[in-house]
Amino acid sequence: MELRRIRGYSILAKGDTPTIINEETFFVPSQSDEGKKYKVTHFETWECECLDFKKRNLACKHIQSIELFLKLRSSQESEFLQFTDGVAQNKVVCPCGSAEVVKRGTYRTTTEVKQRYKCKACKRRFCPDLVKRTKVNGQMITLIMDLYYKGLSLRDIKGTIKTFYGVSLHHETIRQYVLRFTEKINAYTDKLKPKVSDRLQLDEQKLKTKSEKEWKWCWNVIDEKTRFLLANNITNERSIFEAKIVLDKVKPLIKKPVVITTDKLASYNHAIATTLPTATHLSGVGLMSQHNNNTVERYHNQEREFDKIRRGFDRVEEWQAGHRLFHNFIRGETTPAMKAGINVAEGENNRWLTLLKKSYFKN
Questions:
Q1: What is the DSSP letter of 218?
Q2: pTM, rounded to two decimals
């Protein structure tokens, strides 16, 4: 379903706006046949003429695109998507926490005039918008990051922002925004310590880079009970030395003896015995056995889908830390971070924006 949603986003990102016949009937352009359109109806339930819907009776990419289109249109009409970083009920609060603020001048950016404020408590002048020296503001930045880590390409994101908000961004600018603010948020979240259970899963997989024309080994350590991704790393080999690197990242988080399940890779035996001597190592686990690596394998599937949609990356290291951030703190109704006792964004609609604010005010 996640992949169909991403493909639905892509339809709109390309500029293929659905045709509205009435409140219940729509036509969505085919992505493979230029002259063809699929009829989508919504009476009591959603239905589509495409083969995917007829075979599986699931919300296909055409239905997903209509749902997103209607949601965005409704939000624009009610001004929910006016990208401002103001606090709820238009109450501006100083970074020091005081609400005793007054307006004090303005300044102009390339896209708008922004209001400055002065805090009566700390005498600080500030602007409620978090990000500086960017063409867009904080909420737009977080929308870009969300679309990126959900699988849209840089050019698809560029098309989406231009179609729905009239803002022109170069795809390289979007990439730089993602890298810059992912690093900023990670600097904050890396200081948060999860509650680690007594069962960990460790595994590695191969990912191919586009420019370097070679395979990289991607190592991941995940908490079996909370699904919190504790550490990951990228290496060229998978020897004992490389296995120790990722285990060294996990070691400060472990406060009690743990059970670590792995596959039959010989490097794990010596690496675990020397790095975590109190841990119990279960090697050669199987898919259907009592002790397995299914949780970390499911995370690998997410990485593969991310890799497949983008058809390879120039540098895997550029997105790996951000994908870990997305998995731990953003994805799902109840995130792995919440299960691990980290509730920094619990109950928030825009978890990206909450983390971005905390990264500025807590660092």
A1: E
A2: 0.70
